[in-house]
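S.,

As promised, the magnesium ion run. Input:
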Amino acid sequence: MQALRGVDIEIGAGETTLLVGPSGCGKTTLISVIAGILRRDEGECSVFGTDLTRLSERELTAWRGRNVGFVFQSFNLVPTLSVAHNVALPLLILGEGFASALRKADDLLARVGLEGRGDALPAKLSGGQQQRVAIARSVVHEPRLLVCDEPTSALDAESGQRVMQLLSEVARRPDRALLVVTHDSRILAFADLIVHMDDGRVHDAVRPKAVMEVA
Ligand SMILES: Nc1ncnc2c1ncn2[C@@H]1O[C@H](COP(=O)(O)OP(=O)(O)OP(=O)(O)O)[C@@H](O)[C@H]1O
Ligand SMILES: [Mg+2]
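Predicted complex:
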């Protein structure tokens, strides 16, 4: 079965791109290919000038570790590690010292409203709290490509706005990009580009701010 068919999108550096479409249309599959988590069967996938299809598994893993932050739809926290260790993990894998990695993890946990919860195991946290841990983990190593699958699905309005502000702040630099899958109309205001998908295809991409400026 083909989950994606003839998808052609370009994500701008320094921009926030939102990907929307019905359940099962291929959003998670598409962002997994762009982030180097899944391999595509055919076609090109180039990120910041690197053709991911030409990398070996080992090279792809190293590339991902350096360049990508990913918030999984189901969070994917490591259940046996504390919340702070989960957040610090991308830095520890990149070789950063333990004390400095944990300091950055604590700072980010405070940014997402989880100050003082660093020693807890993920299972002790609510769904929305776990989602905020996943968000802190995705930005801790300041990735060039930040990809988030429904990052506000378990969050109330205020936490959702706070999280989107953090994600935008990390991504809004000319050499970075933020790609967010969402059903949440409350975060549409953050978009530079909104890409609509259906049945494995991209059928529309609009620039809401450009439309507003012209109008
Ligand atoms: N691991 C898998 N193996 C085989 N097919 C899969 C796998 N994961 C997803 N699919 C199929 O690929 C299609 C696209 O799934 P995908 O998870 O990308 O959808 P989605 O747009 O993210 O949906 P949702 O909004 O529900 O998260 C679906 O038909 C799904 O059944
Ligand atoms: Mg999905």
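The first strand starts at residue 16 and ends at 20. The two ends are 43 Å apart (CA to CA).

- D.
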